[in-house]
Design goal:
single chain; mainly beta; 7-stranded antiparallel beta sheet
Length: about 90
């Protein structure tokens, strides 16, 4: 990611189907918050971990097993994970 705030975009082709997804990769905490507030799904590491707004702030929710854990500190200011591990999928 360059310092202008432009995210890296990667194109992937799923094995089944013809849709190609554009991955908006490397997201800051501010970009994650904005995407969630706009209704865009944000993922951490893979699509099995979706970022959701919980009662106590943003949470990483596993879609594979029933568990969740906080995305930030109790003040919502410090991101516990690397920015390069977050992404959104956008149909091309």
């Amino acid at each position: 990611m360059d310092r202008t705030g432009e995210a890296e975009h990667i194109y992937i082709q799923p094995r089944i189907g013809r849709l190609t997804h554009k991955i908006n990769k490397i997201m800051t905490l501010e970009q994650i918050k904005k995407a969630i507030s706009e209704g865009t799904k944000v993922y951490w590491q893979n699509t099995g971990y979706e970022i959701q707004q919980g009662k106590e702030g943003l949470m990483v929710q596993s879609t594979i097993i029933d568990c969740s854990f906080p995305l930030t500190d109790e003040h919502g200011e410090f991101l516990y994970f690397k920015e390069l591990d977050f992404f959104t999928l956008i149909n091309k």
